[in-house]
Amino acid sequence: MATQQGTVTAVSRSISHQFSKDVVHSITLVTGIGVENDAHAGVTVQHLPHLTQDPTRPNFRQVHLIHYELFYELGGRGFDVRPGQLGENITTYGIDLLALPQGTRLKFGNQATVEITGLRSPGPQIERFKKGLLGQVFWKDNNGHLVRKAGVMGIVLVGGPVKAGDIVQVYLPAEPHRALGPV
């Protein structure tokens, strides 16, 4: 049974390795691969920094998701950021993605399902995109712990179409829950 529900506000993809992705009408998730016609789709890592480390590693970053509420927060700090501009494939509303445990499943519409694998670890591309933005989505808290707010990553368990307006159902994994770490 779903524990919470939200909606998809936008979907994006890019055939090339660029920071921002183009907002499109719909995307197709492919089981075990990622977003069809997206540069980060693949069974093994496609993220450029990870390719140089070990190109045979499994791709736990097939789909990038960001909560739309982050854009409101950033806007309040003077940063105009819109869906797709931070490189996400799916922008959601009404779900605290960052608080979900590892292994949470998100079902989009009636079919497509993504399992959350971890937090996006933002890098210098964000700072190149908008000066000062990296410090808004990645910093150390008062206890010295790194805070990552640039979205979550996942793998495709069940393929299918995803479009703006789709309902997102959240299914938590069995306890004990594991907090998200960077992937």
The poorly predicted ranges are none
Q: Give the CATH topology.
A: M1 Pyruvate Kinase, Domain 3
The biggest sheet, with number of strands, parallel, antiparallel or mixed sense and barrel status, is: 7 strands, mixed, barrel
The count of helical stretches stands at 4
Beta strand count: 13
**What's the CATH first level?**
Mainly Beta
Cα radius of gyration in angstroms: 15 Å
CATH architecture: Beta Barrel
Structurally, the number of domains stands at 1
Shape from CA axes?
A: globular
Distance between the termini: 27 Å
Strand content: 25-35%
Topology order in helix (H) and strand (E) letters: EEEEHEHEEEHHEEEEE
SS-based structural class?
A: mainly beta
CATH superfamily: PK beta-barrel domain-like
Percent range for helical residues?
A: 10-25%
Averaged pLDDT, please? 95
Major sheet strand order = 1-6-5-11-8-7-13
Oligomer description: single chain
Description:
It contains four helices and 13 strands. With 183 residues, the chain is mainly β. Strands 1-6-5-11-8-7-13 form a seven-stranded mixed barrel. The longest helix is centred in the middle third of the chain and has 7 residues, at 69-75. The chain is globular.
